[in-house]
Amino acid sequence: MEGFTVVFLSVLALGLVLQLWLAARQASHIVAHAQRVPAAFADRISPAEHQKAASYSLARLGVERWDLALSALVVVAWTLGGGLNGLDARVAVMGLGPLWGGVVLVLATVLIGGLIDLPLSVWRTFGIEARFGFNRNTPTGFIKDRLLAVLLTLLLGGPLLAVILWLMTSAGDLWWFWAWLVWMGFSLFVTWAYPVWIAPLFNRFEPLNDRPLRIRLEQLLERCGFRSNGMFVMDGSRRSAHGNAYFTGFGANKRIVFFDTLLDGLEADEVEAVLAHELGHFKRHHIAKGMLLSSALSLAGLWLLGWLAQEPWFYSGLGVDNASPALALVLFMLVLPVFTLFVSPLLARLSRRHEFEADDFAAAQTDPTHLINGLVKMYRDNASTLTPDPLYSAFYHSHPPAPVRVAHLSSKIPT
Length: 415
What we know:
Blueprint: H1 3-32, H2 47-78, H3 83-92, H4 97-131, H5 139-170, H6 175-198, E1 205-207, H7 211-224, E2 231-234, E3 245-248, E4 255-259, H8 260-265, H9 268-283, H10 286-308, H11 312-316, H12 325-340, H13 344-365, H14 368-381, H15 390-396, H16 402-410
Helix pairs in contact: 1-2, 1-15, 2-4, 3-4, 4-5, 4-12, 5-6, 6-10, 7-9, 9-13, 9-14, 14-16
């Protein structure tokens, strides 16, 4: 067995054991606290609602365990199990040539991966989400969404892959830098186009028509010096009872989007506080910092791919007989998450710090009590656990645990 094979299997096994252990900790912690609502929430969340959140979280953890095991098996099957060798041989007999044969190989790997994940997606949507009253999608709508996602993958991903693979073979040793420039341009284009051209393919967006609420929110935007292309309500209720709000796009296409389920569940002052939190991300430059970090990581990743693509041990150590730009790209896509898993807690910690900063901004612009009330309603309506395991939360969660976040906001309430 080759040295890189041993490293790969060892890191994969370590990551799987670690994630299963964290999931077991999370389950045990939730069960241990399921019978008692934390004191900070006792007057706003009933024991029945708290127990529903615990049951919902445990059900999702059950699927997560299967997903972790399946993902590990799939990676091994593609690599050491000979899956990529077999697919590469089948694509080769099509006679498409190195470039378009490579595009087909990469897209086929992605689409097959989606098919493998499909049963768990169905289980989540029509099993768990339906059982806890969140799913509002239909089988027809579910299939339509998946087919539309496949079509977009082909229309957008196909040309991008063709350019990247052409650069890998024609742009010399610095191909990875030119590929990075192409990737950044593509990412900016998709970010710009998403609100106007892509998102409306999946959901309906209507301007916010509640005039008193719109005036109130526009005054907040003016105070914060934020300009957008409008505030819109998305028909999130067509698929799910979960609620949320977000910014999307940039430049002239920058929009503020509220789920209709969120507006149905919150009072006007709570919606204003939630928007103030989102504006906090903008005013504290979290979006720009995130784009810069993503840009730097993409550059580092493509440089690493440029090095690995030239190393025979990278292919043979992962059970692949041939070497090609397309195979290097597929192997990199499959194996990178195995190794970057251990970096995810650092990114989660950075995200939680940004959430605290955005909460601080919201507390300065609105009454902190309004944001607390809005968050508690969102925790309740989304059946979010109030008692996550601290270690599990530190490893995975992009937002602070509910008790920590509410305590932080409570400290901002004027005395």
